[in-house]
Specification:
mainly alpha, Ferritin, 2 domains, 6 helices, about 70% helix, transmembrane, transmembrane helix, membrane, DUF4142 domain-containing protein, DUF4142
Length: about 210
């Protein structure tokens, strides 16, 4: 009887291990709504259904990036409009601030419809740039303002373009479409000042390192 009990316990333990392995295997190869395969199924909770289509982590991140761009570019744009040495930089600063005020209103409206929580403060790097500009004046302010904003817009444009190319959410797609036009317009105006130091911008990836 004792041997039978021991064998029964071992069988239960073995069956439990097998069941665990089967469940783990299924979880590892679980497919998320986007059609991508999750490493361990942990991304299911990052996707949610909306009336505009599936909303994924990249969609949410894009909305956050637009919101955070406005949180620092509105005040520094207004600062440039008041303090820049060059009239061209003053005009660009005023334009950027005005556009981002409108864009910020739009992104908050989109986020509300999709139940996305947006930040209320600039990120640490943006705060560093704001503090840096606050301590500058004259031509040095103009140079740093233009180059910080030009680099930031290039980074945001790349991130938004990737989301626009693959998002499954109709509302995000429409918003990012208009957002990309604003970002490109800002890049063009910043470059029109003649102060952009192109050699300091991130170099584009060579073809062999780009996704197929």
């Amino acid at each position: 009887m004792r041997k039978l009990q021991i064998r029964s316990l071992k069988y239960i333990e073995f069956a439990g291990v097998v069941a665990f392995l089967i469940v783990s295997s299924l979880t590892i190869f679980m497919v998320v709504p986007n059609g991508a395969t999750s490493v361990a199924g942990v991304f299911w909770q990052d996707w949610k259904s909306t009336e505009f289509g599936p909303l994924g982590p990249a969609d949410v991140d894009a909305l956050i990036k637009v919101r955070q761009a406005g949180l620092w570019e509105i005040p520094v744009g207004q600062q440039a409009a008041d303090r820049a040495a060059s009239d061209d930089v003053k005009d660009v600063g005023a334009l950027l601030a005005a556009d981002h005020i409108k864009l910020d209103e739009q992104v908050r409206g989109v986020a509300e419809q999709l139940d996305v929580v947006l930040p209320s403060l600039p990120n640490p790097q943006q705060q560093v740039w704001m503090d840096e500009l606050s301590g500058l004046s004259g031509e040095e302010f103009d140079r740093v303002f233009v180059n910080r904003l030009r680099a930031a817009h290039g980074s945001v444009y790349e991130a938004l373009a990737e989301v626009r190319a693959g998002t499954r959410n109709e509302l995000v797609r429409s918003f990012i479409q208009s957002g990309l036009l604003v970002v490109m317009r800002h890049i063009t105006h910043l470059e029109s000042t003649g102060l952009v130091e192109y050699e300091k911008l991130p170099e584009p990836l060579p073809p062999e390192r780009r996704p197929a």
